[in-house]
Design goal:
Order of helices and strands: EHEHHEHEHEHEHHEHEHHH
Number of domains: 2
Low-confidence stretches: none
CATH superfamily of the largest domain: Aldolase class I
CATH class of the largest domain: Alpha Beta
Strand content: 15-25%
CATH architecture of the largest domain: Alpha-Beta Barrel
Mean pLDDT: 93
Shape: globular
């Protein structure tokens, strides 16, 4: 499963990219607006940080012609851009045109298997079910993800399922277990994937034991400069 960061903050993206496990970034108008920078400039910097990874940008028009105009423009900025289009009638109509033109489209704000079926037939590159938002209204986000994956596998759709609106590490783990192609998450959730109290406790114990023993055992690896100084 690929890991995307759901942010437009370049510092967060740099930190995640430096760890060697980041496959891409998803942005939206809300996240981009927080950065208070020219949008194209921001997106291109993110593309540079992510390297070969995918960067998702989102249209803001609500009519088909406006979506097409914005999507074509953003797709021209960088070859790694995937354009996000909302799950509306106008959005699906725009998707059908863009997919024929070779523009990769991520259909966002998907909340039902029937919506996911339609966008796969129309040629979506990614589909983004918002699992956490389904949970927020006492639904079952993971059941939604399971249904979408079952439909796609049954009919060999090429659309990749991007699990979105992930609120905590177990959302990520469950999405991985079900076979989601991609999980996108806020930086806070990404950081939580590293954490476990037994890891911290174990490392603390190892270091304490070594400090107690080093007076007898000496250094495990003596620096070259120190060895030369003793000769």
């Amino acid at each position: 499963m690929k890991i995307f960061l759901d942010t437009a903050n370049v510092e967060e993206i740099r930190q995640a990219a430096a760890l060697g496990v980041l496959d891409g970034v998803t942005t939206n108008p809300t996240l981009a607006a927080r950065e208070k920078r020219p949008f194209r400039e921001l997106v291109l910097e993110i593309c540079e940080i992510v390297g070969n990874g995918v960067v998702n940008t989102e249209v803001v028009s609500t009519d088909t012609e406006g979506m097409l105009r914005e999507a074509r423009e953003m797709a021209s900025w960088h070859p790694n851009i995937v354009v996000k289009v909302p799950m509306t009638r106008a959005g699906v109509q725009a998707l059908a045109v863009l997919s024929q033109e070779g523009v990769r489209v991520n259909i966002t704000l998907v909340f039902s298997p029937s919506q996911a079926l339609l966008v796969a037939k129309a040629g979506a590159y990614f589909v983004s079910p918002f699992l956490g938002r389904v949970d927020d209204i006492s639904g079952d986000g993971m059941a939604l993800l399971r249904d979408i994956l079952t439909i796609y596998r049954a009919h060999n759709f090429r659309t990749q399922v991007l699990a979105a609106s992930l609120r905590h590490p177990m959302h990520v783990v469950e999405a991985a277990k079900l076979g989601a192609h991609i999980a996108t998450m806020p930086f806070k959730v990404f950081e939580q994937l590293f954490a476990h109290p037994l890891t911290d406790r174990g490392l603390e114990g190892f270091l304490k034991d070594w400090e107690n023993a080093r007076a007898v055992l000496g250094e495990i690896v003596e620096p070259e400069a120190a060895r030369k100084a003793r000769r």
